[in-house]
Design a protein that fits this description.
Blueprint: H1 19-40, H2 53-65, E1 73-77, H3 79-82, H4 87-90, E2 97-101, H5 107-112, H6 114-117, E3 125-129, H7 132-136, H8 141-158, E4 163-167, H9 179-194, E5 199-202, H10 229-242
Parallel strand pairs: 1-2, 1-3, 3-4, 4-5
Helix pairs in contact: 8-9
Length: 244
């Protein structure tokens, strides 16, 4: 009897990862997990906090001692508002000036806290400076402009008659590399507000550039990020000249 030759089943090759390859794959996985966690980690307004707890508590205490009258002007935004010494007296032509700046905040933070920082006071005018930190944290000009739109919409729904003024993002020397994104963001916001009644775009950016289009360092402090008295004097002049 003729014997059939034994059949040999081919064995699939086993891929052996090198230690380096395994580490790279693990690193990529960790980056993806952290990115997703960061995307979902921004707390809603009710949970925000801890980083501004002392500032918000100070606002509450001030209101308990003397709650601002309705119909005034609220200045809200990041550290450029918070660090503005003498802001209230700089705009004393208005009967009530409420300063609600909280350092390091973004436009998203202003949106999340608009009820407690703006709407609660029922102002007739709102001046906002925010967006610079959004870009520093990686937001795109399109995203920042959308956040300004949301901020405006929320105020408009609660206070239909309130005038809203957006102060353009300043050209901080420390963030000079971001100038193209800053210009793009400012232009998108300017165009949007031009189409919205009872709002305005206040351009301080242009006045803070030299003839070659670079930031004028004489308006900034030693950290090259925050303004010095000369910078605030310029802001006072430009904003006062444009507010109705």
């Amino acid at each position: 009897m003729r014997r059939e030759p034994a059949r040999i089943t081919p064995v699939k090759p086993v891929r052996i990862l090198s230690p380096l390859g395994s580490l790279l794959n693990l690193r990529a996985l960790l980056i993806a997990i952290l990115a997703l966690a960061g995307y979902a980690s921004r707390a809603p307004a009710a949970e925000q906090p801890a980083r501004w707890q002392s500032e918000f508590a100070a606002f509450t205490r001030a209101d308990e001692l003397h709650h601002p009258e309705q119909g005034g002007v609220v200045f809200v935004g990041s550290s450029s508002i918070r660090l503005w010494d003498g802001l209230e007296s700089a705009f004393d032509r208005f009967p009530t000036v409420v300063k609600r700046g909280f350092g390091g905040s973004t436009m998203t933070d202003c949106v999340d806290n608009v009820e407690r920082l703006v709407i609660e006071y029922k102002p007739r005018m709102v001046v906002v400076y925010a967006g610079e930190n959004d870009l520093a944290e990686g937001a795109s000009p399109v995203e920042v402009a959308a956040r300004v739109r949301e901020f405006t919409d929320r105020i408009r729904r609660a206070l239909p008659a309130a005038h809203i003024a957006y102060v353009s993002i300043k050209p901080s020397p420390l963030r000079q590399v971001a100038l193209p994104a800053i210009r793009d963001t400012n232009e998108r916001i300017r165009q949007y507000l031009a189409s919205v009644p009872n709002t305005q775009y206040i351009d301080v950016h242009t006045q803070m550039l030299d003839a070659s289009g670079q930031p004028r360092t004489e308006f900034f402090g030693a950290d090259r990020l925050h303004m010095n008295p000369a910078g605030y004097a310029l802001w006072r002049r430009e904003i006062n000249a444009r507010l109705p």
